[in-house]
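Much of what follows relies on a compact textual record of a protein's fold. The record below shows the convention in full:
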Amino acid sequence: MPLIVCDTCHRHVRPSTEGCPFCGASLQQPALAPLPRWLGALLLGGLAITGCGDDGSASDDEGETSTTNAMMDADTETTAETTADTAETTTDTSAEMSTDTLGEETTNGEDDNGGSFYAGPAPDFLDIPECDPWAQDCPDGEKCTQQIDGENGSSNVCVPITGDDAPGEPCTSDGPLTGSDSCSAGAYCLLDANDEGTCVPYCEGSPDQPVCAEGSACSITDDGTLTICLPTCDPIAQDCGDADGCYWSGQDFLCYPTFAESVGEPCTSSNACAPGLYCVGEEFVPACEGNSCCTNFCELDNPQCELEGMACTAFFSEGEAPEGQENLGICVTEE
């Protein structure tokens, strides 16, 4: 039986659940969105995407996450260490930052009802951002990017354009506390678990109709403060780069910086799990010792689960899988 997504906290739960076991919300609208973010944080458990690195390890059971630049029902991660406390799971994108802030909003233009990232509530002083990442309305010589406050979360600020590294090129970042990097206008330095950066383009268009180049889709995380185009991918083939894994963003399967937690190990974001794995709630993994643990994707016509007592169940609700993903499953505890 496929899992469903809670519209309030974006966690995956069993259809028989009368109320969400994580947030208590009613499950009167159980259908999964036809597009991805099981995130974030992000997530997806959740996804992590923001940026200053650590040792590449996933965060502990209490929700600390290891990266910020990568991004599911556990939720994939994207914000700084402080966002780890705002959500139980996230996805990693660049160490020490969690996909919790990625709020698991990734989209290709369709409504996102199944986001995986978690985002904490924005403090009052961040209600009016300094700039708009979609409009890029900063003065000449500056760009609108994400900045993470160690205590109050993320917001958008104008920072000087100090480099000319183009999308796809290596880059350096001063970290999310400043928002400064060596990428050109219109690009953001996404760090992997080793703090090695690559410039990725900001999404164009609008939150309702984001625009990215062919072969990529818009990842919107951290309460909308980080909007970047990432390559789309296949969760079974895991056809991303060496330092990335293919994770559900809540709207699409996208390539995020990845970490190395194994099947059955605790996780706080989907990209805290190794490529081919996904972060889900503790009830779905036998003997899970955290709030969420890693499990593996599987194929419905050739179900292979790595742990005993687990069964391959459809990742999407019937009729809602994106084209080409009808055979995708996720290993969860047998009912």
